[in-house]
């Protein structure tokens, strides 16, 4: 097996390295190690390659749910044949999209005049609406 020199460029990953990395990480560290064992990298190339894999890999987080919410998530994930992680990711993406829509609407209405709540209520009373 040939070892690359420090100044030599090594391109060992497939063209779609993000897909390669994601597949290897899903199969586990042993799979990634076996794939990399056939390829010899110099230290800098290996570091850059591993950093690119980690940047495209899903990130882990610990989230604590109330027992009722966790039960509902388990039931929903089983009913939809998806993982709890997929269900939570979808809900978070939807929530962030709603926030983005709200911020966009707020920006569009930024130039509208501000109304005093007390004056609005008083005007409604005078007109007999409340």
Query: Radius of gyration, Cα only, in angstroms?
Result: 27 Å
What's the helical proportion of residues? 55-70%
Q: How would the global form be characterised?
A: elongated
Count up the helices: 6
Distance between the termini: 86 Å
| Helix-and-strand structural type | mainly alpha
What's the β-strand tally? Answer: 0
Strand portion: under 5%
Uncertain ranges: 9-17
Order of helices and strands: HHHHHH
For the largest beta-sheet, the strand count, sense and barrel status come to: none
* Overall tally of domains: 2
Mean pLDDT: 78
Walk me through the topology:
Blueprint: H1 17-27, H2 29-37, H3 43-56, H4 67-79, H5 84-108, H6 117-126
Q: What does this entry look like structurally?
A:
The chain has six helices and no strands. Mean pLDDT is 78; it is low at 9-17. Helix content is 63%, strand content 0%. With 130 residues, the protein is an all-alpha fold. The chain has helices spanning 17-27, 29-37, 43-56, 67-79, 84-108, 117-126. The protein has two domains: 1-59, no CATH class; 67-123, no CATH class.
Annotation keywords:
elongated; 130 residues; 6 helices; mainly alpha; 2 domains; 63% helix
Short description:
With 130 residues, the protein is mainly α. The protein has helices spanning 17-27, 29-37, 43-56, 67-79, 84-108, 117-126. It is elongated and about 80 Å long.
């Amino acid at each position: 097996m040939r070892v690359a020199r420090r100044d030599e460029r090594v391109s060992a990953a497939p063209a779609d390295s993000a897909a390669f990395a994601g597949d290897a990480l899903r199969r586990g560290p042993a799979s990634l190690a076996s794939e990399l064992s056939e390829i010899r990298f110099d230290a800098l190339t290996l570091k850059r390659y591993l950093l690119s894999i980690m940047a495209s890999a899903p990130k882990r987080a610990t989230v604590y749910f109330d027992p009722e919410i966790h039960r509902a998530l388990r039931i929903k994930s089983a009913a939809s044949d998806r993982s709890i992680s997929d269900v939570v990711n979808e809900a978070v993406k939807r929530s962030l999209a709603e926030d983005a829509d709200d911020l966009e609407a707020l920006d569009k209405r930024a130039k509208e005049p501000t109304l005093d709540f007390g004056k609005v209520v008083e005007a409604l009373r005078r007109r007999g609406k409340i």
